[in-house]
Fold this sequence. Notes:
Layout (H helix, E strand, L loop, with lengths): L8 H17 L10 E10 L7 H15 L4 E4 L14 E8 L1 H18 L17 E5 L19 E8 L3 H10 L12
Antiparallel strand pairs: 1-3, 1-5, 2-3, 4-5
Amino acid sequence: MSSKVQAARLKELYYKKLRSEIKKELELSNIHEVPEIEKVVLNIGLGKAKDDKKYLEVAENTLLKITGQKPVHTVAKKSVAGFKLREGNKIGMKVTLRGDRMYEFLDRFINIVLPRLRDFHGVKSTSFDKNGTYAIGLTDQTVFPEITFEDSSIVHGLQIIINIQALKPEHSRLLLEKLGMPFEKERQHG
């Protein structure tokens, strides 16, 4: 008999409380219509540094430390002469999180990383696509507490994509708000 140590805090909160709250608030007829996070994808594009071994190493180490998973390298599908890019070149790396790891990452991201950002006034509410998927970009990976001074010799950006299964983008936003995502306040004109 194996006992699960402790379920991810946000996952427990979602299934025990928020799911029924959101269903009632949005007046949905079926519990399966309630927005739900499917996966979280973290990307690092290599850009001009695609041939820099040290940059590759730092980027891979960053993703490994903040997610606990080994990143998958993404490669160019076509050659583009203007970018000095050949088909098959490494152009980035990504990690896809699901289940408990996804909820644990989101919990750390919302409650520890975002408050550490300099001049932070909330995340943009315009970063939803028509399917309700939310994307946020960071310009500096050192805001993650898992990254040590030695790991931050090369500063690079990071994109986080929260894939949400929802009927409308507004439903996705409500879910993220309930999970604690700090959206920036709408500016009042007048």
